[in-house]
Design brief:
With about 160 residues, this protein is mainly beta. The protein contains 3 helices and 11 strands. Strands 8-1-2-11-10-9 form a 6-stranded mixed sheet. A 5-stranded mixed sheet has the order 3-6-7-5-4, with no helix packed on it.
Length: about 160
Amino acid sequence: MHFVLFALDERRYALTLLSVERVVPVVDVTPLPKAPGIVLGVVNAGGDIVPVFDLRQRFRLPQREIILSDQLIIARTSQQRVALIVDSASDVVDVPAEKIITAGKILPEMEYVKGVVKLQDGLVLIHDLDEFLSSEEEKNLDEALKEFDEPAIRNV
């Protein structure tokens, strides 16, 4: 399996390569009123209004301001395109499926993490985008996007 590695603080995470469209420099995020707290706002990705998720909040990491060196990972869930603000996206790695440990065995409280893999330089949590939002958060996000009046939004 192929994964895109990314970092938040000193911790490393991964997304399946098939779910990632591209990695781009961070841009201004336009606030999205009435969105779930996990959504920072929206950006324009190739003409689509894409919600930007706050991974720091979801992974219970200290909050910080967005800085110019941050990056956006534009990815696709089974429902929609999303953008994730990360400190950096670094590599694409190939991991044999048998090396992946199911997250439920180690981190049962983190339903949005589907596995853990040990690489030569440490552990990596494999993130499951389809489980990132609860059904209630998904519903609230859909409603917020429907009500959103598109001002000038920066393209990514």
